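Q: Give me a backbone?
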Amino acid sequence: MAADRARRVSGRAQGVTLEVFEARGRARWDRLAGLLAELERSETRGAAELPPLYRQLCHDLALARERQVSGTLVTELNDLALAGHRLLYQARTGEVRGIGRFLSIDFPRAVRLEWRLVAGLHALFYGLALLLGLLAWRNPDLIYSFISPESVSEIEAMYDAAGAAEGPARTAGSDATMFGFYIWNNVSIAFRTFASGLAFGIGTLVSVVANALNLGLIASHLAREGSGEPFFSFVIGHGAFELTAILLSGAAGMRLGLAVLAPGARSRIAALRAAALRSLPIIAGAALMLVLAAAIEAFWSPREIPAQLKYAVGAGLWALVGVWLGAAGRSRAD
């Protein structure tokens, strides 16, 4: 008798628990079921609701199992959780695939579409840097016509092998700090090179010339001072991504400048809008390259390892960038 009375009381308590449990969660579950149906139809307006609703559903499912409220309800919630998990997983996979497609196909194709501007800026930058380097080699005082003596002294100390050996060792914390600084510095230079293209492309050309001047003069001066190896072994690795990204930003800026200078049959606003759309993948790809360059510059370039190894790795990275931008994403029609 006592056992039967206990089962009746338990059953009434379980029934009340089930009613309360359903009353509290039914609106959320129905909303989640409706949202999943909308997302399956590619209607993404309510997509932001999916993560919190899915987390709450997982909590409700755990409670339902723990309290054994109803086998039917547990099955319903479990099916709903599986559907939500599948949709979230597919969405994340799609994002990763989207980034992979951009890097392997869309970005290199956008760069090749502007190959004339890209090639022209590379020729200007490296040709001018080489010319100024040769002039500075023949005339050592030429560097002081463009860079202050104080700045030259700082650069000499920075790449002095003996000074670096006597200085404090780099730590993981200082590497991370320099990583953030390099991102800010690189992106600042690339943004100025890009945005100044709006001034009929003149600003971009000035930025490219200024950077070529600094590279040529500093490289030549340090080589004459006997610090060529510390300098070149430091810059060769991250330079593959950093210098290329800055010149790509310049090509995107020149595209904007040409749209302003010669809009053709379109209005300047329409031509500028079209140029911005064409330049957007180049700028996005260049930004990713600058982040990678900053990581190499912070965590690899300053390491005290044989210069020959740095040269070998650097040469491999330059070849990788060339093959990536020159060949990736090509189709038979290209």
Remarks:
- DSSP finds eleven helices and no strands in the chain.
- The radius of gyration is 30 Å.
- Residues 103 and 285 are 7 Å apart (CA to CA).
- Residues 1-13 have pLDDT under 50 and may be disordered.
